[in-house]
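Dear Dr. K.,

Following up on our conversation at the group meeting, I've run the structure prediction for Rieske (2Fe-2S) protein from Nonomuraea mangrovi. I'm pasting the input sequence below exactly as I used it, so you can double-check it against your construct before we proceed with anything downstream. Let me know if the numbering doesn't match what you have in your notebook.
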Amino acid sequence: MAGEERGRGVPGIGRREMLGATGVAVCGVALAGCGASDGSAKAVVPPGIKGKVIAQKADVPVGGGKVIQEWKIVITQPTSGVFKAFTAKCPHRGCAVGRPEDGVMTCPCHGSEFAADSGKCLKGPAQGALAEFPLKVEGDGIIIL
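The predicted structure tokens came back this morning:
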């Protein structure tokens, strides 16, 4: 067998095959680490906004939201007093999703739809959720953590 003839490795598997399989396994683990177990993804907070008020509660309607173009973030208020922050970049091709309407954010480029309460992909071609930012409400301000 090829592996035995070379005097090393697993019988029947050459060095190239072993390295290729190892690379695939490592890539799979790295990609799996990008999302949470519920299918959502956690976003990396853009530099310069951590700890800053990026929106006012009054600017984010219940059942809707507000896109903050400067930071490419969408803030939603799915139910009264509950605020969420997601990247406004569609995971399909990076187009900016629109402001939520009726609990859904839509990507104008290819029609992907995302739930305003979770960022979960409701309709493709996007395959994954919008990445979520941690936030807190302090007074009337919404702050990205």
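Two things stood out to me. The chain has a mean pLDDT of 79. The CA atoms of residues 38 and 120 lie 9 Å apart.

Best regards,
J.T.
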